[in-house]
Specification:
two-stranded parallel sheet, 305 residues, alpha/beta, 5-stranded parallel beta sheet
C-alpha cells in the first residue's frame, strides 16, 4: 500500500525537498500551509508584473524559520519561472542551476561567494550550453565575481538563455546585498535565509542603482495548518484511487496542539516526517486507522518528547 506522505520519487529515508522542475508530479504536492501559498502567489504576481529579466537581473529572497519549506518553495518558484519565461512571446531557453546544498558554513563571505561562482561555472560546463572559448573566458574571471557576472551575462544574452541560480542559504545581510550588486541581465538569483531581518538589512545596505530585492516569507505552522496539510495528502491519495489508513481531523488537531504547546512551534518538515513514519508503521501492520497514540509512540521511539 503506498504511503500518501511519500512524494513521487522519494522514500521515507529521503527527506529532500519537493522539486517540480525535476519531478513534475511534485507540483501537486504543495499544501497551502505556513503562508507558503500566499508567498508563492505574491511571487507569481511579482514576476508577471516584472517579466523581462533581459534588461535587469533579479534577486528573490525567501525567509522563514528552519524547516518551514523555504527550499521546496524555491524549487516551486523556479519551476514556474522557467515555464513562464519559456512561454513568453520572445521566449528564453531557461536553465536552473541548483546550488542549495553548496553552503560553506564557517567560511567568510568572500570565500562563500567565490565558491558559488566556481560551482556555477562547473554546472554551466556540465550543461553543455557554452562553447570552449566562453568557458575559458569565465574560468579566467572566476576569482573576481564582479567581472565574472557581467561576462556571464553577456554570454547568455548571446545564446538567448536565462539562468535561474538557486543559491545556498544566506544568513548574512551583507551576502544577500552582494548578490544584489552582482546579478546581471538574464540571471535570477534565488536566496533563502532563516532570519527575517536579513531582507530589511540587505535593502538598507543598498545604494542608488542597486537591483531591487523581491522578498517573500513563510512561517511555522498553526493548529489549523496541520489538518490542512494532512487532508491535502489524503485527498491526493483518494484522487489516485489509493486505499490508505484513515486519519481523523481530531487526531491531527490534538497532535498539533500538543506539539505547539510543548515546543512552542512546529514546522512543515516535522509534520511531513512524522506523518510519513506514522503511516508507514500503520501500513506495514496492515491497519486501516491511525490514532493519536501512534503519534506519541513515534515520538517516544525517537526520544523527541
Amino acid at each position: 500500500m503506498p504511503n500518501p506522505f511519500t512524494a513521487p520519487g522519494r522514500t521515507p529515508a529521503d527527506n529532500r525537498p519537493l522539486c517540480p522542475w525535476e519531478t513534475p508530479a511534485h507540483d501537486a504536492w504543495y499544501a497551502p500551509v505556513d503562508h507558503s501559498e500566499d508567498a508563492y502567489q505574491a511571487y507569481v504576481t511579482h514576476l508577471r508584473e516584472n517579466p523581462d529579466i533581459r534588461q535587469a537581473g533579479q534577486v528573490v529572497l525567501i525567509t522563514g524559520p528552519e524547516g518551514c519549506g523555504k527550499t521546496a518553495w524555491t524549487h516551486r518558484a523556479a519551476s514556474w519561472t522557467k515555464n513562464f519565461l519559456q512561454g513568453q512571446p520572445a521566449p528564453l531557453t531557461v536553465h536552473i542551476v541548483d546550488l542549495t546544498k553548496d553552503g560553506r558554513a564557517g567560511d567568510d563571505m568572500a570565500t562563500r561567494i567565490r565558491h558559488v561562482i566556481g560551482r556555477l561555472l562547473d554546472e554551466l560546463d556540465l550543461l553543455g550550453v557554452l562553447n570552449a572559448r566562453e568557458l575559458e573566458g569565465l574560468e579566467r574571471r572566476r576569482e573576481d565575481p564582479a567581472i565574472f557576472c557581467p561576462y556571464l551575462s553577456g554570454i547568455v544574452r548571446g545564446h538567448d538563455l536565462g539562468l535561474l541560480v538557486l543559491l545556498p542559504p544566506s544568513e548574512l545581510a551583507e551576502e544577500v546585498h552582494q548578490y544584489l550588486r552582482l546579478v546581471q541581465r538574464r540571471v535570477l538569483f534565488f536566496c533563502e535565509s532563516s532570519y527575517d531581518n536579513v531582507a530589511q538589512a540587505a535593502v538598507s545596505l543598498s545604494v542608488a542603482g542597486a537591483k531591487p530585492l523581491a522578498h517573500f516569507a513563510v512561517d511555522v505552522l498553526d493548529e489549523s495548518d496541520g489538518w490542512e496539510f494532512v487532508s491535502h495528502r489524503l485527498a491526493l491519495a483518494n484522487a489516485n484511487g489509493l486505499a490508505v489508513p484513515a486519519i481523523d481531523e481530531s487526531t491531527i488537531q490534538q497532535f498539533m496542539r500538543t506539539r505547539i504547546k510543548g515546543r512552542g512551534r512546529t514546522t512543515i518538515r516535522e509534520l511531513q516526517i512524522t506523518c510519513e513514519h506514522v503511516l508507514d508503521t500503520a501500513i506495514r501492520a496492515s491497519r486501516n486507522q491511525v490514532s493519536y497514540s501512534d503519534f506519541t509512540e513515534y515520538y517516544v521511539a525517537k526520544a523527541m518528547l
